[in-house]
Structures are given as C-alpha cells and as structure tokens.
Design a protein that fits this description.
The protein contains five helices and eleven strands, in the order αββββββαββαβββαα. With 247 residues, it is α+β, with helices and mostly antiparallel strands. The strands form three sheets. A five-stranded antiparallel sheet has the order 8-7-9-10-11, covered by helices on one side.
Length: 247
C-alpha cells in the first residue's frame, strides 16, 4: 500500500478482500491486510531457543454505505493516518479527489417538535415498525434561572403521560422558553414468524446532532422513519439564508 510505504516504511504487499453486506447490500466492506514491519519472534525449536524473523500483516477495514454516502474506517494507528486513508480510498475506489480536512458537521437537530402534543410517529408499513414513541425527554429552561428538567417514563407507563408530567413541572413558563436537548425513543417492530414477543429497541437523539441508532437493517429503517418525519440535522438558519453552505 503506497500510503504506508511513503509514511511508515511498511506495506510492500497488500491483500484486499471485498464483501457486500446489509439488508439490501448497501454496505460494501473492504478488509485490507498490508505487510507490517519485519519482526523477530523468540521461540523454541526442538528444545533450543531460537529467533525467527517474520513479516506479519496488520488489518484495515473500510465500510462504505451507498445509501448514506458515508465511509467508516477501522485502523489501529494515528488519527492522522485515518484521514490519509479516507483520501486514498476516495481516490482509489470512488475515483474522487477530496480535501484532506473535511468540513465540520455543524448541522443541528430541531427537537422542539416533540413538545407538540399532536405529534405522533406514523411509520410506513414497509419499515416493519409497529410503534415508536418518546419515553424520555430532557428540556432546558431558558427563562429566569436557567436549568434543565428530565422526565423519564417507567417501562409500562403510557407515552401520553410524558408531556403531561413535563407540563406540570414547567407550568407558567412560556413554551418559547423551553428547548428540548435530548429525547429517548422506543421503537417496537412488527413480530416476525415464530417470534413470541415483538422486538423493541431504544435510542437517543441529542442536541446538536447526536443520534445513537444502531447501524444495521433495523437501524436503517428507524433512520428512514426519522427522515420521513422531518427529524434530521439541518443547517443553522444563518447558513441556510446565505445559501453557500446549505445542502
């Protein structure tokens, strides 16, 4: 691998294995095994202590998601080398030259939609999601002495109780002075064949742009549901008005 030969003096030989994975084959995996520096192992051979030189390999994993246009890289090494690998992958696999330093992701979630008592998730049938509801909410009070309030429901408490409890503890405070900074959501999936209890999954969305949805087929359905409901990170208003950074 040319990058490691130039930067670290290793990688003279490299084997790459390629696989398609994901529910619809949307993720392409590249397992690369470049040759490492020469090492010497001390071991016994027929009872005698000997030194045996060998050339081990080290592993790099690239995961490219076609549906999201994202690239994940696993490499046990310097952070700057991962950036180099990103540039090399784009050039070798995608045929694109990208800047070494990517633009900072400064999009933000607008979570205040969850304060609307009329809001409800209505997932499309093809997502296989039976229900989705907010089970926990953290709100920052911007009025008077600023502070935060968290309301979390018990496992069997109906979801409609959450806004009732939040309304009780924020009584007298204008809604414009409430800012939702984190929500915990529980998704229940439609049962599949021979499944006695439907599977459920919990995840969190946090301000400004944190979402810990698991990266798998069901997680992909959840993310598509969020997009359908307009719950996705957006550019800051001043950048949208400018037009030069909106995407």
């Amino acid at each position: 691998m040319e990058l490691f030969r130039e930067k670290e003096g290793r990688g003279d030989h490299c084997t790459v294995e390629q696989f398609r994975r994901g529910a619809h084959g949307e993720r392409e995996y590249y397992f690369a095994y470049p040759q490492d520096h020469r090492q010497t192992a001390i071991e016994y051979n027929k009872g005698a202590l000997t030194k045996r030189p060998h050339r081990p390999a080290f592993e790099i994993i690239f995961i490219h998601d076609d549906s999201k246009n994202t690239l994940s890289i696993w490499h046990r090494g310097k952070k700057e080398r991962v950036v180099d690998l990103q540039v090399a992958f784009a050039r070798a696999v995608l045929g694109q030259d990208i800047p070494r330093q990517s633009l900072r992701d400064d999009r933000v979630y607008d979570l205040d939609v969850f304060l609307d008592p009329e809001f409800v998730f209505r997932p499309r049938p093809e997502f296989g999601i039976a229900s989705a509801e907010v089970r926990e909410m953290r709100v920052r009070i911007l009025w008077g002495e600023q502070h935060s309030i968290t309301v979390a429901l018990g496992a069997e408490t109906p979801g409609r109780i959450l806004l009732q409890r939040l309304g009780a503890v924020t009584y007298g405070i204008p809604q414009s002075m409430l800012k939702v900074v984190r929500v915990g959501i529980r998704v229940t999936f439609e049962p599949i064949l021979n499944e006695a209890i439907p599977k459920s999954r919990k995840f969190e969305i946090g301000y400004p742009n944190v979402c810990n949805v698991q990266d798998d087929s069901r997680g992909n359905c959840i993310q598509r549901m969020l997009a359908d409901h307009g719950i996705e990170p957006m550019r800051k208003p001043e950048e949208q008005a400018d037009g030069s950074h909106a995407g």
